[in-house]
Amino acid sequence: MSFKDYIISKLLLSVFVSAVLYGFTYIELLKQHSDLSVISLLFFILFTFVLFRGGQTTAKSKNKQLFSQFFLVATSIKMFLSLTIVLIYFIVLKPSTQYFIIPFFFVYICYTIFEVYILTKLGNSKS
């Protein structure tokens, strides 16, 4: 996958996710948690960029296991950082409902699917 293809795909995904998150602001239970939505979106935009660059580098490596190891480590780091974001939000802002997690998981799922897509493309392009 070329960098240009990655940027176009990521831009389309980010516009879609942003539109849905904006739509969530019209739902009273989710409206009050729009700050977590923005934080989540920015985190995953940055994380997928780091993942793409790391995937490009490890896919070209002579070590055939490096790409798989990178994917496993990156997934673990993403899960840990995601949990950290949610816990900090929960502890600091003390949301009155549990619905704050819905926009976060929407962003998480969308970007996880995108990560699998880009890493699959990068993994298949190894020579």
What does this entry look like structurally?
This protein has helices at 3-24, 28-31, 34-59, 66-93, 101-124. It is mostly helical. It has one domain (3-124). Helix 3 (34-59) packs antiparallel against helix 4 (66-93) and helix 4 (66-93) runs antiparallel to helix 5 (101-124). It is elongated and about 50 Å long. 21% of the residues are buried. The mean pLDDT is 92.
Present the secondary structure layout.
Elements: H1 3-24, H2 28-31, H3 34-59, H4 66-93, H5 101-124
Helix pairs in contact: 1-3, 1-5, 3-4, 3-5, 4-5
- Tell me, what's the shape? elongated
Q: Average pLDDT value?
A: 92
The number of domains is: 1
Helix content: over 70%
Q: Strand portion, in percent?
A: under 5%
Largest sheet: none
Structural class: mainly alpha
How many E strands?
Answer: 0
Count of discrete alpha- or pi-helical segments spanning 4 or more residues: 5
In whole angstroms, the N-to-C terminal distance is 13 Å
Specify Rg, calculated over alpha carbons.
16 Å
Order of helices and strands: HHHHH
In the predicted model, the low-confidence regions spanning at least 5 consecutive residues are: none
